[in-house]
Amino acid sequence: MAPRGLNAEGYFGRGSYLASRGQYREAIADYDRALELRPSYVEALNNRGLAFAALGNPADALASYDAALEHRPDYLRALNNRGLALAGLGRHEEAVQSYERALAVEPHYPAALVNCADALTALERNPAALEKLERALALSPSGAALCLHIGLSLAALGKQQKAIASLEAVMQDREQFVLALKVQSPNPEIHYNRAILLDALGERQLAIEDCERALTLRPDHLRALNLRAMILMSLDRIHEAQSSLERAIEVAESQAEPTVPAGIFRGVELFARAASCEWEGFADKADALTDAIDRGGHTLPFLYICFSDDPARQRRCAETFIRSEYPTPHPPLWRGERYQHERIRVAYVCGEFYEHPVAQLTAGLFERHDRQHFEITGVSLTGRATADAMTLRLERAFDRYIDARRLSAEQVAERLRELEIDIAVDLNGYTGAQRFEIFTRRPSPLQVGFLGYPGTTGSPHIDYVLADQVVIPPEARQHYTEQVVYLPGSFLITDDRRSAAAATPTRAELGLPEGAFVFCALHGHYKITPAMFEIWMRLLKAVPGSVLWLRPRNPLVTRNLQLTAQRSGVSPDRIVFAGTRASYGEYIARLRAADLFLDTAPYGGHSTAADVLMAGLPIVTLMGTTFAGRVGASILMASGLPELVTHSDADFEALALRLATDPGELAAMRAKIGRTAPQAPIFDTDRTRRHIESAYRLMWQRQQAGAPPAAFSVEPDVASPRDATRV
Description:
By secondary structure, the protein is α/β, with parallel strands linked by helices.
């Protein structure tokens, strides 16, 4: 007998109100009272099912929907919700059948179309899923929540371009878009996948919030912890990133088969410490990471390169990473066909086609390629999301420019195959906005690593690496899975159309003391090691009144370096942080205000070292044992300045001190740089371009003859008068 009080509609209304406040158990009690009074009350049965679903009980939810459908077999909402409950129970085939029943009643039901697509995706019936999503999008192009769901589903199917288009449509109404994002899901994967897409759209703060929603639902969600940390690091919120990484390490080490290996997090956490110059316990953590690699573990190869001076271990880390990340090889898109093109088709694939060191170095190369013999394509992995003057310049430099921001790795690879690219050049490796998966799909007969990544990829998918005799001496080739192509002089190309601003700012304008000796080290802070910083502190103590000029950074870096200096007996005010640079030309001009540039080890300056010579500033480098630690030496030796290359910490410190305390020797060195550097091959873009093209021709000729990739050296091109400046 039903209790006295409200009628069925009253209990239903109160139950719905309680459910809207998240009081699902109380809501179910009121729905039950309504059903005692009216057993065929299908709306109450449907909402009762929704409340059970919200409590994480899909079995009871399913029973409630089934009861509603006994009374009304064509009840659309119950059919749709029944499909969701079945999917929650892993019964995806039955879920599809339930959605199809709803669509038979109403073919233009967007929610059923989208949910049916999700179930079809779970069954790996992707073409059918795509058909449903496209129908849903056509029916509801402006519904914020629905467009968000459709975008996520398309992204999960690898249809990045359509996914972003779906979201950009609703993002035009930002208020509605943000409201749609606030819709909570009991499934942490929904929030995690949404965060991935938001990050791709540049909505990093919203992506962080979705990671946090996923972690509220599943605190041990490793991929969400990892994504949150990566985004926070990109925003320079290092301490917050470290909390995610420390939690991730704990979780990964507690799981038998973690979705992300603990070594990945150890490497990122170590990098975060390096980027913030937080060195307490740093050496122990670096040793622990190396021990893990020796035992068959791995981290992101670029991260290990930053701390390692062992090329054999770098190769081991990269090979383990490839086996772990790509355990099942993709079927190659290029299957041995012999292309017969009048011009060699070269594609440069890069995530930094904007005002970035890689673009600054290569812009002149792209513009000057010999169009009679080469057809040049540029593939931008970030597209116009970061468009600036450099992006516009590069768009004009290529014969064909592909904005791949909205394309998946699979779609980019397919595009390269359709274009019959002969040589695909990877300018990222494992750095920056890379998508190495493109190359694992083998879209081109020849795939080459160049410039952006100073080490081996450990991958059979990269055939060659462009280098020189200094960065990869012949005896070090064993540490590379790629065949090494030796360019004359230095492998590094520069853009000789870029130059310093005419006016050199005064020291006062730069915040530097007028009469002091200025040691300069404008490196990324992750390259500064405790050992190198200690050498710098000893130099400051040995040269009275001198200062150390470093790159600008956040207050955390400033505090850490000043505290470390103080512990070393150096006043913190002797460390000067540079202001932000307005342009490349002004940056080069500012370098002239320094007296001596100090390189880092084991990861030295690359484009920075070339910039320093362009400014006419002497640089002391320490030649290391790995590619990353030998680029400075490569540049100096190719510029006729081998006397600035040292081979030990003691020699590095002694040479820097001698130059800092002997004005005559320093002046002579500056004069020599002023004479030789402007004429050095390193600053002759056209010469290096010819050498790179010779390398491409030789690779292509071997491939056309059916020969496998093999190491070789490119003969110097004597067409340029600058070739006379050789060591």
